[in-house]
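Escalated from tier 1: fructose -6-phosphate holo job.
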Amino acid sequence: MALVLEGLKRLEYRGYDSAGVAVVHDGRVDIFKAAGKIAMLEREMGSTPATSQTAIDAGVLRTALTKRGHVFRSETDTEVLVHLVEELHTQGRPLVDAVAGALRQVEGTYGIAVVSSREPETIVAARRGSPLLVAIGSGENFVASDASAVLAHTRSVVYLDEGEIAEVRPADYRIMDLAAVEKEKTITQVDWDLATVERGGFAHFMLKEIMEQPESIRNTLRGRLLEEEGTVRLGGLNITDEDLLKVQRIVITACGTSWYSGLIGEYMMEELARIPTEVEYASEFRYRNPIVDERTLVVGISQSGETADTLAALREAKRRGARTLGLVNVVGSTIAREVDGGIYLHAGPEIGVASTKAFTSQIAALAVLTLKMGRLRALSILQGREVVRALGRLPDLVAQVLAKAPQVEQLAERLQRATNVLYLGRGYNFPVALEGALKLKEISYIHAEGYPAAEMKHGPIALIDDLMPVVFIAPKDAVHQKVVSNVEEVKARGGRVIAIVTEGDAALAKLADHRIEIPETLDLLTPALSVLPLQLLAYYIAVRRGCNVDQPRNLAKSVTVE
Ligand code: F6R
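Tier 2 regenerated the structure:
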């Protein structure tokens, strides 16, 4: 039982608001449920026998089962399914047949695990829409929605595909489709180790993951940079150079922070590769009538690889004949498996709900993809080499910025009581303004807005007074002078300016009330540096305000429902 609770705790980061356990022992199934953290569930379970052989995480059961056309015999959709299974099972069918039979009668999305007192050693698991895997131990097997739950016991996992059902026992397992046709499945070795899903010496996963960025970016770039040729090697694109040359348009689709990195990707792709690029919220794209064809490359960006809208947008694009690529962190995730090809981020597990290291790895991966596309077109070898070299230096520059954490912590003390904060940036750093504002909103619950700095004059400038901190992301880049003018406009209205600037920027040193310096790099890579103080700022403010940094209220790590 301790094992199931430990697994549930490792899944807590995904942002469940309640959890439950079903325990099979002495010919019965006992169910425990509690709203809130796993600790509440532990309290609820108090005197439960510590040694059941079979138990399931009702958190998995709870993941959405949407039903249509059924006569409801109980309050929830999930209960309807359970009754259906029970009916078939008590008629004498083995549990796996009963679950398959029930699932053939229902519609909707689910990730379920079912146990029965009649087959105390069996777990039957099935997926449609929600991630699920079977983990293979020695003399013991597991069912989980995420490999991090079982890493302490095994690294060998089998990912279930849509519409598959697994019958899992301590010594063996079988995977079938709902028509009982057995499937040959490959066993994947998860390369994350236990340390990466634990906090190490850090107070929070978020801080650990912020501080890991020199390493996570290095891992994204490892083996991919070809300095001499001024290009990159990408083993997983699964598209020939000839076909990449036929691409006339790129659509990037994603949600949240991944959407912001997509915006940076658009700027890179248009500037360096000269390919018309659009960035679409996956939730909008999927329900419009998007114009994509076989000359469109649709790139989905997702840390988790499970975001329902991003997955659906990619499926829609595929249906219309587009080539699809995934920039995904979680190996073996649904998006990673469904796209034609892609670039894994290799940033390691991101447990903190607020995305940090995945964002900077996405920027690195987008730069790499831009180089690939650009070098097949007009980007010269010299330009290519310049970008490759700058990418190679990036991890060390990231470490230099992170060393300024104590300075950012002091700044957080001054900002912690703010009720509104405005983030402004231009060019490559406009998406960073959006990301800085999102980080603050989601973990400190302070209202924040990100805006293109010049757009401020068209509305938000009315908000500015001496109580309104304005964060400018203003490194020395092509639009720097323009941003300096925007800072002057804010100062003239009494605003308090915090500026992220390039080392030695004299103009902003005079104008800004507070500033954090970042080293120089190519314009396109400035976001990977300028975002770091903003991640730290949000973190320290949230800690000072006593917020739950790793699991902010109302948020889930991967949004597997639309
Ligand atoms: C914000 C955050 C979310 C995710 C979004 C997409 O810190 O984490 O906005 O970026 O839910 O998630 P993925 O990248 O897993 O598709």
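The longest strand covers residues 18-25.
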